[in-house]
Write a structure and sequence with these properties.
With 215 residues, the chain is α/β, with parallel strands linked by helices. It is built from 9 helices and 7 strands. The strands form 2 sheets. The protein has a 5-stranded parallel β-sheet with strand order 2-3-1-4-7, with helices on both faces. A two-stranded antiparallel sheet has the order 5-6. Strand 5 and strand 6 form a beta hairpin. Helix 1 packs across helix 9, helix 2 packs across helix 3 and helix 6 crosses helix 7. The radius of gyration is 17 Å and the shape is globular. The protein binds adenosine monophosphate.
């Protein structure tokens, strides 16, 4: 299964992608995670990427395509892959076609998680995590018992730099303007597109995805 998991920031691509990866026994490749690893490692690439990420803007295509080319060509992606957060614009989608042609692979489907903007903002801007133990909360949906403190280890909860409300608004604008046109691109290419209601529970969305992809 060679799949693109598509949808706005906060649609649940990370959570659903991880579950699908387990279901189909193939890796989830998240360009956001690859970039955050580079930021944490403090590499030149990470320092460059961080400026764009904190502003809610897209990181330049050349940086992203280098990361994707390396990962898709690697051993673990040979049985299949789930792309999460890539492609983010039509130029990236065109470049992905070239990479797949070179690797003699083709896409099986694009799965779209549909979620309204208001829910996206609550999900992302409400997200808090514990740097000490990695636990994740949401001030609206899964608040910690004591505001600002981790239930598991008592650590102080923090908000990711690009999760602030004004940055989330910008990420949504970028999604509508640059990323959504990618769907029409795959429509023209004849790649099957499967829409799923991403506002439901994690279990419901996963069940819908699996049945949409297995038929
Ligand atoms: P994500 O975790 O997928 O929401 O990505 C977090 C941030 O990383 C985005 O807001 C972008 O700044 C950057 N990013 C991730 N994937 C891409 C991509 N394919 N193209 C450009 N920027 C990206």
């Amino acid at each position: 299964m060679n799949l693109i998991l598509f949808g706005p920031p906060g649609a649940g691509k990370g959570t659903q992608g991880a579950l699908l990866a387990r279901h189909f026994d193939i890796p989830r490749i998240s360009t956001g995670d690859l970039l955050r690893d580079a930021v944490r490692a403090g590499s030149g690439l990470g320092r460059e990427a961080r400026r764009y990420m904190d502003a809610g803007e897209l990181v330049p295509d050349a940086v992203i395509l280098g990361l994707v080319r390396e990962t898709l060509g690697g051993e673990s992606a040979q049985r299949g892959f789930i792309l999460d957060g890539f492609p983010r614009n039509v130029a990236q989608a065109e470049a992905l076609n070239g990479i797949l042609r070179f690797l003699h692979r083709q896409l099986d489907a694009v799965a779209v998680l549909d979620v309204a903007d208001e829910l996206v903002i609550k999900r992302i801007a409400g997200r808090r995590s514990c740097p000490a133990c990695g636990a994740v909360y949401n001030v609206h949906f899964e608040p910690p018992q004591t505001p600002g403190r981790c239930d598991a280890c008592g650590g102080e909860l923090v908000q990711r730099g690009d999760d602030r409300e004004e940055t989330v608004q910008r990420r949504l604008e970028v999604y509508r303007a640059q990323t959504e046109p990618v769907l029409a691109f795959y429509g023209r290419e004849g790649v099957p597109i499967r829409h799923v209601d991403g506002s439901r529970s994690v279990e419901d969305v996963q069940a819908q995805l699996v049945s949409a992809l297995e038929t």
